[in-house]
Amino acid sequence: MTTLKLGKRPAARDDRTLRLSDVLVELPAVPPEYSYEAAHDVNLPTPMFANDRYGDCVIAGRAHLTLRFEHFEQGQVLDISDRDVLHEYFREGGANFLNPRPDRGLVMLNSLKLWRKCGWIVNGKRYYIYAFAGVNHLNYDLIRAAIYLFGGVTFGLALPKSAETQFRRGETWDIVSGEDGIRGSLGGHCVMSSDYTRDGLIDRTWGRPQLMAWRYLDAYCDECYAVVDARNRWLGDKSPLDLARLDSYLQALAG
Length: 255
Hints:
This protein is about 35% helix and about 20% strand. By secondary structure, the protein is an alpha+beta fold. Among the domains are: about 50-130, no CATH class; about 140-225, no CATH class. Strands 1, 4, 5, 6, 7, 8 and 9 form a seven-stranded antiparallel sheet that branches.
């Protein structure tokens, strides 16, 4: 039995979910390899965020994105604690520290909606996002653009059993044959990627970076989202985002 926790429940679908391709004016020119930390000369932590004890990977992925969003905006590294992550995880799962069970994980789409609407609290301060959008995980150029523009993307994966073996051995997540390569045989998991190389994406999960081959997405990804942290960053005539269309979409949701 695995000692690593998962926590992504089956992907939900909502026809109203914005697609990144609908509001991206054009694909920007991006480098063949990119690392948020290298580009911004910062060494960000990669905590476990209690994902060895609870199935809180959806909120752990949010925490890794928040580290990057707020570093970009504030020029400092937030101190996001396990307690901050678990407080939000329990809140969204209908539990609390005194009664943390059942530990059933979260639906990524529902959690993103709550993040946009209600924010979440880190060190006593509430942090919101402006919008989120689905990304076609088979479109590698779009994924590269999303990471380059927004500081990272979150992937929902139906992991095979081989994922744990490869992780523990320090190997790349790549496709294997046989029973250990069956989609979803380990379970659903959420990871955050803020770096890509020619060989694949570098996820933040279970307390460390994990290289994931590009073709792994084809086989095991069942949802992918880009998050727009702050509207003001995208103001201007040369913005890659169609803010008028994005604002119209959000207003329609609120109506």
